[in-house]
Amino acid sequence: MSPTKETSTNPFTLKERMKFPHQPMPEQAAELRIQNFGEVNLGYTEELARQEALRCLECAKCTCVEQCPVGVDVKEFVKLIVAGKLLEAAEKIRENNVLPAITGRVCPQENHCEGACLLHKKVDPLGIGYLERFVADYDQRVGARVAQKAPATGEKGGHRGERTRGPKRGWGFSSERP
C-alpha cells in the first residue's frame, strides 16, 4: 500500500509561494506610542495572517516542528489558517501549547521554528510567531469556549482548614510557638 499524498489547502505552487513577500507586523505609530503603554506590535489582521500562511511550503519533513521547544504542529495549524478555520487552528496549537498568546509574543522563534524554516534558506522565514499570536488573539476575541471539567482521577486535593507550616514558621508569621 503506497502512502497517500496529503492534499493541500494552498492553491499556489511552491515556486509561487517563494515569491510572496513576508508580511511585516503592523505597529503603533511612534507619535501614539509615546503617549501610552500599549503594545507596539498591533498583530496581524485576518488578511495579513492568511497572506503569510500562504507562504508555507508544507514540507514533508517539518523542521519547524522539530525545533519547536513545545512541539507545536506548525504545518497543520498553518493549513487551518489558509483554509480559514481559525478556531480550529487555535485548538491545534493548544494541543501542545497552553499559552500561545504569550509564546507568540515572547518565544525567540528566530532561534527555534523560524530559524529552522526551509524558506529561510532563500527568503525570509514564515512568520510562525506572528501567526501563533494572531490565532491566539483571534481565539480570545471570537472563540466562545467553555472550560471543560477535568475527569475525576480519584485523588483528593487539599482539605479546608489546612495550613502550610514550613515557610510561615521560618519567617515568624505563625501564631503558634515552636
Outline of the structure:
The chain has 178 residues and is an all-alpha fold. It has helices at residues 14-19, 30-33, 46-53, 63-67, 74-82, 86-94, 100-106, 113-116, 128-142, 166-171. Helix 5 (74-82) packs antiparallel against helix 6 (86-94).
Can you walk through the features of this model?
It is a single chain. With 178 residues, the protein is mostly helical. The protein is built from ten helices and no strands. It has helices at residues 14-19, 30-33, 46-53, 63-67, 74-82, 86-94, 100-106, 113-116, 128-142, 166-171. The protein is globular and about 55 Å long. Helix 5 (74-82) packs antiparallel against helix 6. It has a single domain, classed as Fumarate Reductase Iron-sulfur Protein, Chain B, domain 2.
